[in-house]
Design goal:
With 207 residues, the protein is mainly alpha-helical. Helix content is 75%, strand content 7%. The chain contains three helices and two strands, in the order H-H-E-E-H. A two-stranded antiparallel ribbon has the order 1-2. A hairpin with a 2-residue loop joins strand 1 (91-97) and strand 2. Helix 1 (9-72) packs antiparallel against helix 3 (123-206).
């Protein structure tokens, strides 16, 4: 038998303190879960908007690419693609939302002059370059939002498990323990009161 369940006043105080902490913990978990859910809903709406925009942008970009391939030839377009510099302006930082580390991508879109000669290319190359630049910008933004949403969803699941454990296991357990110890102590007090009355009555008879 667990010594903490013995019907003593000390154990009753410990049980009441544990019950109060469990209830406080549940309230905190519930608030945390609600805040994370609000953040997640906001990110889902944002991701949906970006996804819609990126779909239409991708469609337009590939139309521009097809036109450029027709006008210049696939080989030349491939060669021009190799002249595009590697993106190195992306850096990742994190911010915390209720203990959840959310990635924040710092990205500076570069709109430098084209890396190809105007004299040997047509407008279709310019249009394709501009369209795929926008695709890249949106892809970076979408990756940040989706990654943040995934981390929030994962933390919401963990928070939900902890809240359920407190609500369905810990709080009922300590509630039952407080009740059983209280009942046992009250019964003990009644027995003691009865015993003292009997002793007092017996002393009065002797007197």
């Amino acid at each position: 038998m667990d010594p903490r369940t013995f019907p003593t006043k000390g154990n009753l105080m410990l049980a009441k303190n544990s019950l109060a902490l469990a209830r406080q913990g549940y309230d905190l978990m519930d608030k945390k879960r609600n805040i994370l859910i609000r953040e997640l809903m906001s990110l889902i709406d944002e991701a949906r908007d970006i996804q819609d925009e990126i779909d239409s942008t991708f469609t337009y970009a590939y139309q521009c690419l097809q036109r450029a391939n027709i006008e210049h030839g696939i080989n030349m377009v491939s060669q021009l693609a190799y002249t595009v510099p590697i993106e190195n302006s992306i850096s990742i930082r994190t911010r915390s939302i209720m203990g959840t580390e959310i990635p924040h991508v710092k990205y500076t879109p570069v709109h430098d002059l084209p890396t190809y000669a105007f004299s040997t290319t047509r407008e279709s190359i310019d249009q394709a370059t501009k369209a795929f630049q926008k695709v890249k910008d949106l892809t970076v933004k979408l990756s940040m939002v989706e990654n943040a949403a995934y981390r929030l969803a994962s933390n919401i699941k963990k928070t939900q498990k902890r809240a359920n454990a407190l609500q369905n296991i810990t709080i009922p357990m300590y509630t039952e323990l407080v009740s059983s110890i209280t009942n046992a102590l009250e019964e003990k007090d009644r027995e003691e009161f009865t015993r003292l009355k009997v002793i007092k009555r017996m002393k009065m008879k002797k007197d």
